[in-house]
Design a protein that fits this description.
4 strands, two-stranded antiparallel sheet, Cytochrome Bc1 Complex, Chain D, domain 2, mainly alpha, 6% strand, 143 residues, 2 domains
Length: 143
């Protein structure tokens, strides 16, 4: 009985050690690092997005609320774009509240959504799963 406990302890110790090493490798790897560089106006738009809880209704890349549409590619979608975005910000539609953003705030939100749009596609049908567990995505700003 004591031998089983020792054996179990050894197995658990080995598994925890391997798990720790694997996580250390994954989270310190620079292989898939893609730094985000928002302009000052884009950062202002991001702050407005967060302060007004846009996440609670809208999604980007499929993450967020489900009451409103996913806005990942709203900037580049045909028949939409900057004027479309600005129109909805102050008018409110159905369940979307009416905001009283200044022109500078609307521009900041449009800049933020333009940046999100420039980073990729959602849904990304060209994603490839690599053997090491990472997902290789197609980005709009890659050449």
């Amino acid at each position: 009985m004591t031998q089983n406990k020792t054996y179990n302890f050894l197995i658990i110790t080995i598994l925890i050690t391997l798990f720790t090493i694997f996580n250390g490798f994954i989270y310190t790897s620079k292989e898939n690092e893609n730094p985000v560089k928002l302009t000052e106006q884009g950062l202002h738009g991001q702050r407005l997005w967060q302060e007004n809880n846009c996440w609670s209704c809208h999604q980007t890349y499929g993450l967020g609320g489900y009451l409103g549409p996913d806005l990942t590619n709203v900037y580049s979608t045909e028949n939409k774009g900057p004027m479309y975005i600005k129109a909805f910000l102050n008018s409110g539609v159905k369940t979307m509240p009416k905001f009283n953003f200044s022109e500078a705030e609307k521009e900041a939100l449009v800049t933020y959504l333009k940046f999100i749009d420039s980073t990729g596609y959602y849904p990304n049908y060209n994603a490839k799963f690599k053997p090491n567990g990472w997902v290789e995505l197609q980005y709009k700003n890659e050449k």
